[in-house]
Amino acid sequence: MTLTVLGIETSCDETAAAVIRLDPENPDGPGEILSNCVHSQIEVHAPYGGVVPEIAARSHVSIIDGLIEQAIADADIELTALDGIAATAGPGLVGGVMVGLMTGKMLALSLDKPFIGVNHLEGHALTVRLCAPLAFPYLLLLVSGGHCQLIAVKAHGVYETYGSTLDDAAGEAFDKAAKLMGLGYPGGPAIEAIAQKGEATAFDLPRPLRGDGGCDFSFSGLKTALRVRATDMQPVSDIDVANLAASLQQAITDCLVERSLNAMQRFSEDETITAKNDYSMLKFVVAGGVAANTHIKTALEQACTAQDFSFHVAPPQLCTDNAAMIAWAGAERLRVGKISPLDMAARPRWPLMELNSL
Ligand code: KG4
Ligand code: ZN
């Protein structure tokens, strides 16, 4: 029997509700997306050049009920047909997380259905299985506005972090650079668009941590270097901005690729991964908002091909925040009986590795 799950996502500046279906006979996916409603708050935050937590939480409150109604209507099901309700319980902006979490709990309570509190990062980590069949284990580059990590996804709910960012996430670097260049928020898509008109070798920006053999990231130096270059050449012309954008995108791409190559080496040498599993090929997955960037995807795919890793990425609308990924991660948990108590608390910080015992 299939599992039909409602997902709710409110951890940052997207209010989202979606209904997906998981077929337990195909536990590695794909699932079926019955509806996927996303309301972006970009317009209300844009004047501030970033997300304002208090405004985000209030906006989630006013939108979430209608969005859930919409998701149920689009899925063409009754609420009673749901097998479970999943909501993001963290990590994220805690005011927003509480809105979705409370809404999910109340729905579950009133419908007498299981509730699953989902780790937002697990949502990103598993989305690729919603889109196409993909068995564990795989190496994951999770790269978004709040996170930049290389993780070995060894089995469902079993994660080993190889490296994380020491300061800013890659998406944050795009957002801060875009603010500096007056390109608006969110920065990633704006920089990707304008970079097409620029020259990636125009400015020699640093590649922090290059050559240390590790899997950590550091992006704050890049932002500072960009500021210095921009200040040096006032007034900045349109072509300067395009060149800066292209150079920045290239520097971030190079960092992501180099660190991923180090992680591929470690992953392929891990005997707990290679000895125990019947795998036809080592797998590399990129997820999170920055995975919507075509330049970055192309470079990562080339690196994978060179290392004999297969390359997997979800479509762009499932890379940025959405509730289908929360519903899917919830359904994967529901399938193995991992449901959550109704007194589960919202968690502003919640590293993936802490899920290993849950
Ligand atoms: O996963 P996501 O929607 O939210 C978080 O969980 O953080 O990621 C949002 C981030 C933002 O920093 C945004 O600038 C970045 O993803 N992003 C991109 C692109 N689209 C979104 N970065 C680079 N290129 C893009 N096309
Ligand atoms: Zn996210």
TrEMBL record:
<dbReference type="GO" id="GO:0002949">
    <property type="term" value="P:tRNA threonylcarbamoyladenosine modification"/>
</dbReference>
<dbReference type="GO" id="GO:0005737">
    <property type="term" value="C:cytoplasm"/>
</dbReference>
<dbReference type="GO" id="GO:0005506">
    <property type="term" value="F:iron ion binding"/>
</dbReference>
<feature type="domain" description="Gcp-like">
    <location>
        <begin position="32"/>
        <end position="328"/>
    </location>
</feature>
<feature type="binding site">
    <location>
        <begin position="142"/>
        <end position="146"/>
    </location>
    <ligand>
        <name>substrate</name>
    </ligand>
</feature>
<dbReference type="InterPro" id="IPR022450">
    <property type="entry name" value="TsaD"/>
</dbReference>
<feature type="binding site">
    <location>
        <position position="293"/>
    </location>
    <ligand>
        <name>substrate</name>
    </ligand>
</feature>
<comment type="similarity">
    <text>Belongs to the KAE1 / TsaD family.</text>
</comment>
<dbReference type="GO" id="GO:0008233">
    <property type="term" value="F:peptidase activity"/>
</dbReference>
<dbReference type="InterPro" id="IPR000905">
    <property type="entry name" value="Gcp-like_dom"/>
</dbReference>
<feature type="binding site">
    <location>
        <position position="188"/>
    </location>
    <ligand>
        <name>substrate</name>
    </ligand>
</feature>
<keyword id="KW-0808">Transferase</keyword>
<feature type="binding site">
    <location>
        <position position="120"/>
    </location>
    <ligand>
        <name>Fe cation</name>
    </ligand>
</feature>
<keyword id="KW-0479">Metal-binding</keyword>
<keyword id="KW-0645">Protease</keyword>
<feature type="binding site">
    <location>
        <position position="175"/>
    </location>
    <ligand>
        <name>substrate</name>
    </ligand>
</feature>
<keyword id="KW-0963">Cytoplasm</keyword>
<dbReference type="Pfam" id="PF00814">
    <property type="entry name" value="TsaD"/>
</dbReference>
<dbReference type="InterPro" id="IPR017861">
    <property type="entry name" value="KAE1/TsaD"/>
</dbReference>
<keyword id="KW-0408">Iron</keyword>
<protein>
    <recommendedName>
        <fullName>tRNA N6-adenosine threonylcarbamoyltransferase</fullName>
        <ecNumber>2.3.1.234</ecNumber>
    </recommendedName>
</protein>
<keyword id="KW-0378">Hydrolase</keyword>
<comment type="function">
    <text>Required for the formation of a threonylcarbamoyl group on adenosine at position 37 (t(6)A37) in tRNAs that read codons beginning with adenine. Is involved in the transfer of the threonylcarbamoyl moiety of threonylcarbamoyl-AMP (TC-AMP) to the N6 group of A37, together with TsaE and TsaB. TsaD likely plays a direct catalytic role in this reaction.</text>
</comment>
<keyword id="KW-0819">tRNA processing</keyword>
<dbReference type="GO" id="GO:0006508">
    <property type="term" value="P:proteolysis"/>
</dbReference>
<dbReference type="GO" id="GO:0061711">
    <property type="term" value="F:tRNA N(6)-L-threonylcarbamoyladenine synthase activity"/>
</dbReference>
<feature type="binding site">
    <location>
        <position position="124"/>
    </location>
    <ligand>
        <name>Fe cation</name>
    </ligand>
</feature>
<feature type="binding site">
    <location>
        <position position="192"/>
    </location>
    <ligand>
        <name>substrate</name>
    </ligand>
</feature>
<keyword id="KW-0012">Acyltransferase</keyword>
<feature type="binding site">
    <location>
        <position position="321"/>
    </location>
    <ligand>
        <name>Fe cation</name>
    </ligand>
</feature>
<dbReference type="InterPro" id="IPR043129">
    <property type="entry name" value="ATPase_NBD"/>
</dbReference>
